[in-house]
Every structure is written in C-alpha cells, then in structure tokens.
Amino acid sequence: CETCSKEEAKYRCPRCMKYSCSLLCVKKHKLALSCSGVRDKTAFVSVNEFTDLNLLSDYRFLEDVGRTADAAARHCLVHSPATKRLLYCLRNKARGCNIELKTLPVGFTKRRENSTTFNSVENKFYWHLKLIFPHCDAEYTLKGVPDDKTLADILKPYIDPVESDPVVCQRLKIYTASPQSDVRILMKIENRTRNSVRYNELDASRSLLDNLKGKVIIEYPTLFVVLKTLKNDMVVLGQDGSEPAENSDSESSSLSSVEEGEIRDSS
C-alpha cells in the first residue's frame, strides 16, 4: 500500500495508479492528492502498451461522445431563440474586440459552466475565468471578471503574500514564496493538433481584454500560472508566433491532456 506502507495492496486507483490496501487508505490518497479516482479516458497510451481493452475503451468513449452530441443537438435550449440571440451577441461583440469566441453544444461541461456576459451599457465583458496552478495541482474558477482588469490584479488574491487569502496562500505557498518576476501566465493556443500543443505568454501588466485580443477562446479563458524556475514541458511560442529555439520532444504534457479531456468531456 502506497498510503500506509504496512498492508498488502488490494486496490489500484484507475486515475493515478496508486496502490491501496483498504477503503480508508483509498480515501486518504484521494484527499492527499486531490484525486477523483475516475479513470482518465483521454490519457496517452503508447503503441507498445495498447491492448484490446484500450481499443474497446476508446470505442465506448466515442459512442458516449456521439450520444451526448446527439442529445445536445436535440436539447430544447439549442433551438431557443433567446439562447441563439445571446450566443450570437457574445460572439459578435467578441469579434468586434478581435477575439474569436467559440461555443460548444449545450451538453458539454464548459458550455454549462460558462457564465460570461456582456454589459451593453458599460460596453464591457464580464468573463468566466479559470485559473490553473499546475505546480500545486490547484485550480480556481472566477465569475464576472471585468475585461479591463489587469492580470496582476486578478492574481493578487491568490499569489500576493499580503493580499491573498490565508487558506489559498498556504495551498499556493510555492507561488507566494517566489518572486513575482518568476510568475508566468500562459494560455493554450486552440485549433492545434493534439501532439503539437503550444502556449502564448500573457502580459500581467495589461488588461484581460488586451491579452485576449487576437486569440481563439473556447467558451471562456483558461490561464495557466507557472514559475520560470521550475522545469515544465509547456512549449511557449515567441511574440511573433515562432517556435522557441530549444524545443522539447515531450509536447503532449499531462496538463494539456487534462484540458483536452475537459473540453471533450460531456457529462
């Protein structure tokens, strides 16, 4: 057992592959690692390890996606005039700000979660925003974030040693203990193949709207907050969109896989 190191292991977690001996140790490992215990259906499997069970799993996954997409297409909200007007307005306003906003069918998780609105009186977006801190395996969801707020101000309640919440500060202590100059804010570039995942680095001193201009967004922005001093395999493109001089072959990072799975998730 990888939790108590005392008893013989009887169970293996489908998510993180940790061995446990009892229900108590299973619960402890889920709490310690923030593990859901649910198998990641989008996890990478090499050709050498690919078996008939993996093939069957992929087939069932595609069947589930097909059923969900069909159910979403039949959903009454899809054909609601009010819903169509709202989505058209959001996409049109985003296009006017040089942002390509794409929406998913009703049955998808990101479509259901998204709370982004546009205030026509203030001529301002209030974004649904997700912050992911990969070095601490933590993520937070923000609602109603005004588009004129700088990224530095958005991050203050999380990584600022003085202004952050004590509980959050403790969880993200690796960030709060690091110099602010080491913090990098990345956003994944959409519409790329799965084995060619790339990120844009955003400017913390500029507003959320300025950083989103010229970008493709699926439902709402997801920002990855990383540290320069810690090694990671998230490939960042240059300001001109060119590949970095030194490129790692480990492009299909677990972070990217998780996010892709989340976008494709339909339950």
UniProtKB/TrEMBL annotation:
Alphabetized GO MF terms: zinc ion binding
Pfam families: BCD1, zf-HIT
CC annotations in GO: nucleus; pre-snoRNP complex
SUPFAM superfamilies the UniProt entry points to: HIT/MYND zinc finger-like
Keyword Metal-binding belongs to the record: yes
UniProt entry keywords in alphabetical sequence: Isopeptide bond, Metal-binding, Phosphoprotein, Ribosome biogenesis, Ubl conjugation, Zinc, Zinc-finger
GO biological process: box C/D snoRNP assembly; maturation of LSU-rRNA from tricistronic rRNA transcript (SSU-rRNA, 5.8S rRNA, LSU-rRNA); snoRNA localization
Database matches in InterPro entries: BCD1 (IPR051639), BCD1_alpha/beta (IPR057721), Znf_HIT (IPR007529)
Extent of Low complexity compositional bias: 242-258
Region (Disordered): 238-267
Quaternary structure (record): Interacts with FBL, SNU13, NOP58, NUFIP1, RUVBL1, RUVBL2 and TAF9. Interacts (via HIT-type zinc finger) with the RUVBL1/RUVBL2 complex in the presence of ADP.
Family: Belongs to the BCD1 family.
Function: Required for box C/D snoRNAs accumulation involved in snoRNA processing, snoRNA transport to the nucleolus and ribosome biogenesis.
Protein name as catalogued: Box C/D snoRNA protein 1
Source species taxonomy: Eukaryota, Metazoa, Chordata, Craniata, Vertebrata
